[in-house]
Amino acid sequence: MSTLGFADWQKACRNALLERDPEKLFQRVIVAETAIFHRLHDDMASGPEHTELEAMAGMLKTLRRLLATTFTLADGRRKSNEATSALCIERTQARNIRREEKGKEKSCS
Hints:
Structural class: mainly alpha
Number of strands: 0
Radius of gyration: 15 Å
């Protein structure tokens, strides 16, 4: 997710990745998944191209890992550290994108 080439659904996904409040996180993930769902079901003539489909599939996996690492299982166990490490990398990338966007906004003013 290096650029917001598919802004409608990517913005919702970025908001979920950057959410730190667990109470709000679940709702943001639902909003992001819904945005992807709507994009997939747009008019088939203007439906997503292969690159966008790959980006959507990757983001859906990321959102699943985000929820898995944030919430505990019913018996109190947490998900694996491997998933947590992958999520940390993805959140860092999302923060970097946010910084880049702020830098672009400042240079345009």
